[in-house]
Amino acid sequence: MRSDIHVCSDPENVHDRPVYTLGDSCPVCDAPTENSAPAPFDPTDRYGEYRRRARRDRP
């Protein structure tokens, strides 16, 4: 899934809320933007168990 709406890739350091735009760079801080669409969900994901386990093990 691909979206035309982009969000600033560096929101924690500069912004107090997400900045959305249609361009390739943030209009506030001029940082590059990234796709705002969520990753597709696949119920047959073979590696989902390992990814969830790795996420739990992080401090």
Automatic annotation (TrEMBL):
It comes from the Archaea. One of its GO terms (cellular component) is ribonucleoprotein complex. Gene3D superfamilies: H/ACA ribonucleoprotein complex, subunit Nop10. Residues 31-59 are annotated as: Disordered. One of its GO terms (biological process) is rRNA processing. Keywords: Ribonucleoprotein, Ribosome biogenesis, rRNA processing. SUPFAM superfamilies: Nop10-like SnoRNP. Belongs to the NOP10 family. NCBIfam families: PRK13130.1. Involved in ribosome biogenesis; more specifically in 18S rRNA pseudouridylation and in cleavage of pre-rRNA. This is Ribosome biogenesis protein Nop10. It comes from Halorubrum glutamatedens. The lineage of its organism: Archaea, Methanobacteriati, Methanobacteriota, Stenosarchaea group, Halobacteria.
